[in-house]
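Fig. S4 source data, part A: sequence.
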Amino acid sequence: MAAMAQPRCTECRTWFTPAVTARSHQRVCGAACKRRRRNKLARRRRRDDLEAQRADERGRQEKHRDGREGGNGHEPPSGRKYAELLGKLQQIVDNASRLSRATFRRDALRILRKSTVFARSEMDGAGRCHEPPSALGPAENGSRSASDLDGVTARDGS
């Protein structure tokens, strides 16, 4: 039996044993070298016929643009949740004249938490110990004096 000569890979120059079905025409040793060879040959083809390559590229880009404009992609997000959120906030604002500031804030935060429009840390003031000071005076913002906070004085009315 005659020994078969092993060919060398045209890309990495290593000796390899060709596949049984491709002994006469296999030029590369494996998948990585095959990809490298195909890319090199494609570059050569494009370089040799530059005008045809540019026409092909223009056609490819036009086809891509037409596909995007045709609406074959994702649908835009529905505005249903935002309309629902707006309705709930309008309801709160309508009731705000008869509610205290704290009740309004509590209701608004409850709705925003459920809507997931904002991150929880944005709403709850994560990282802060206290609310920022109000620019309003105690009488204007509905807060009570220290004597009103004493449970006995408020009950007795004295």
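Fig. S4 source data, part B ends here. The helical segments are 31-48, 50-69, 80-96, 101-115, 120-124, 138-141, 146-149, 151-156.
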